[in-house]
Design goal:
Strand content: under 5%
Order of helices and strands: HHHHHHHHHHH
Number of helices: 11
Helix content: over 70%
């Protein structure tokens, strides 16, 4: 049993290392996408610069946390889908699916890299944004506002929330697996719906009455509420445990569901010969 676990761990680590090399290979594009995430967060934060000084810090941080979290979500959604697309272009997807490893090992290896990369990039973007507003608009008092922030609690919520988003990301990766032409673009439809009901840039209380109940089904709603509570209100980790538990249960349910859906799509792709199609 120990040898089997060690073998699967090494296989999963191999996918992490492979994705690391792919990231280095396309480092120029990674810098471009990082710049996009940073500029997007800054642009949204600037919306609240012209409000009264006493409301600036909270308003800026409300939008910035939403933008950073949305960037985090996009990476988790895209990491597996992008890998599938890359392997299609390079003609290696059939070899990957023929490799003598469990599909769970494959997907967890891809997911592990995605989580680490997403958390590091999100923290870096948030730090740069805070410094930008601190030096460009000192009257907002951003850094002073964050003195009581529970940063460790926010990181904990981000880590736990990543489980459920990975499950949804694995399900979204089915689209480029079955359709190399439009599948990668179709994942944006999934992303847009989650953004709409999760309150990324606004409080979910402003949603129309018929749509508002859907926000309770999105892990993003609980993650954003907890992260904003930790950063903006300085809530202790103990106060976040309710949402953390919900996110943990969602992750426990969505990851196996995502793997099962991916397995069904893989069997369909192999049976109908979709893997031979390239973009």
């Amino acid at each position: 049993m120990r040898k089997l676990v060690a073998k699967e761990f090494k296989a999963a680590l191999g996918f992490v290392i492979r994705d690391l090399h792919l990231t280095r290979r396309y480092l120029g594009w990674e810098i471009v996408f990082f710049g996009y995430s940073l500029v997007n967060a800054l642009a949204l934060g600037l919306i609240k610069v012209d409000v009264p000084a006493e409301e600036q810090a909270e308003g800026i941080l409300f939008l910035v946390t939403g933008a950073v979290f949305w960037s985090f979500l996009i990476i988790l959604f895209d990491i597996i889908a992008d890998t599938i697309a890359w392997e299609r272009w390079e003609g290696t997807i059939e070899y990957t699916f023929m490799a003598p490893i469990h599909r769970v090992t494959h997907l967890l290896g891809e997911s592990g890299f995605g989580v680490c990369y997403s958390i590091v990039r999100s923290i870096f973007v948030l730090a740069v944004v805070v410094l930008f507003f601190h030096f460009s608009y000192p009257q907002a008092g951003i850094r002073g506002y964050l003195k009581n922030a529970n940063c460790l609690g926010a990181v904990l919520v981000l880590a736990v929330a990543s489980l459920s988003f990975l499950g949804m990301g694995i399900m979204a990766a089915v689209l480029p697996l079955l359709s190399p032409e439009k599948g990668p673009q179709a994942t944006h439809v999934f992303q847009a719906f989650i953004m709409f009901i999760s309150g990324v840039y606004y409080n979910v209380s402003v949603l129309p009455g018929l749509i508002r109940p859907l926000s309770r089904l999105s892990p993003g709603t609980y993650a954003l509420r907890s992260i904003r509570g930790a950063l903006l209100e300085g809530q202790a980790t103990s106060e976040l445990l309710g949402d953390i538990l919900i996110l943990l249960m969602a992750g426990v349910a969505l990851i196996p569901l995502g793997v099962w859906v991916f397995h069904l799509a893989e069997m369909t792709a192999k049976r109908k010969g979709f893997l031979k199609r390239s973009g």
